[in-house]
Amino acid sequence: MLLGATLKQPGYESRGDKERAQGLEAALTAWREQVRDIPAPLYCLAMTEGTPEDEHVFIRGNHKSLGAVVPRRNLEALGFASAAEYAAAGGSGRLKLAEEIASAENPLTSRVIVNRLWHHLFGRGIVESVDNFGVLGTLPTHPELLDYLAREFTADSWSLKRMIKRMVLSHTYQLASTADAKSQAADPANQLFHVHNLRRLEGEALRDAMLAVSGDLDLTMYGPSIPVHLTPFMQGRGRPGSSGPVDGNRRRSVYLEVRRNFLNPMMLAFDTPAPFSAIGRRNVSNVPAQALILMNDPFVLEQAERWARRLLEIEEDAESRIGRIFFRAIGRGPTEEELARCLRFVAQDVRQIAGKSGDELEAWRDLAHVLFNLKEFVFLY
């Protein structure tokens, strides 16, 4: 801008240096073209080394009540490097702390990670208090198993995928969720994992399942987050100027934008944690709001209609369509009673709407909506 202003000063060309002015003008034009092609910068939070300082102990957590100065180091009780070794390493010590946390010689980190993986796959961790391995936490039900998994995890170069594969291929993971009376009496709380825990799908997984069975799920990887869909009830300070699509562009839930003041109502109803702090174990509730979401949420209704449209594109009789819709939703065919009920349901719906629309779309949309509300769809058996 300074260069452009200089070229326009009165009397500049009267100095007789027109060739120089033309050269500068050409350079300015080239610079503007290059700047236009430079993409907008991306910013991220980062940390850099400053002046290392040792801190006082805050007596009873009060910053105004200072105790002795304590040299920086990892927790002494865990037996890591001494304060002298931290000081010799130079800098603040953050890098050395990170190396100790992720060291193969440190059994604590790997035990916490594999326990969380077990918790997410089996519904309960080997240590049930996944956020607390201390005195106030619960003891592991299978300490030898926890140690074995931690050793295998570090031996596999900390590969999460390999550890997940190891767990899901185990006999324990492949157990049914139904138990015989003798086992149930011996282990009513399933502390020994003699059956698979019955679990409700998390909000994100439930949404993705609806997209998958309707045929709408877009498995594209990466890309920017999809703006949150704003309902008329989502008001307040910081409300975005525009709303995202109801279906989230058909992307998986992991790509949905998360705004602290405008959280997805469906995710909240199904216990997705508010993004204010780290949560190792989610709450699992069973409340009326969940049934109301499955009945009335615009995303659920839209996916039921799209599923019905795809179903009607297939030239089949009603029985074949019902068999197809059951297999796609819950992985099994309908029983004779379920088939008869579904046939009556569709026939009744068609008769009621024949005078309005003259097609079967609404009837099959309503049946698809019913399948979304089945316990077998919402829960893992």
SSE layout and pairing:
Blueprint: H1 2-7, H2 18-37, E1 55-58, E2 66-70, H3 83-89, H4 94-101, H5 107-122, H6 143-155, H7 160-168, H8 181-186, E3 199-200, H9 203-214, H10 265-269, H11 288-296, H12 298-312, H13 318-330, H14 336-353, H15 361-372, H16 375-378, E4 379-380
Antiparallel strand pairs: 1-2, 3-4
Helix pairs in contact: 5-6, 5-7, 9-12, 12-15, 13-14, 14-15
Helix coverage percent: 40-55%
Mean pLDDT: 87
Taking the sheet with the most strands, its summary is:
2 strands, antiparallel
Coarse structural class: mainly alpha
Uncertain runs: 1-7
> What is the radius of gyration?
31 Å
Q: Compute the number of helices.
A: 16
Separation of the first and last Cα atoms: 67 Å
Global geometry: flat
**Secondary structure: number of strands:** 4
- Strand fraction equals under 5%
Mind explaining what this structure looks like?
With 381 residues, this protein is mostly helical. Among the domains are: 107-186, no CATH class; 200-381, no CATH class. Helices cover 45% and strands 3% of the residues. The chain has 16 helices and four strands. It has helices at residues 2-7, 18-37, 83-89, 94-101, 107-122, 143-155, 160-168, 181-186, 203-214, 265-269, 288-296, 298-312, 318-330, 336-353, 361-372, 375-378; strands at 55-58, 66-70, 199-200, 379-380. The strands form two sheets. The protein has a two-stranded antiparallel ribbon with strand order 1-2. A two-stranded antiparallel sheet has the order 3-4. Helix 14 packs across helix 15 (361-372). The relative contact order is 0.06. Residues 1-7 have low confidence and may be disordered.
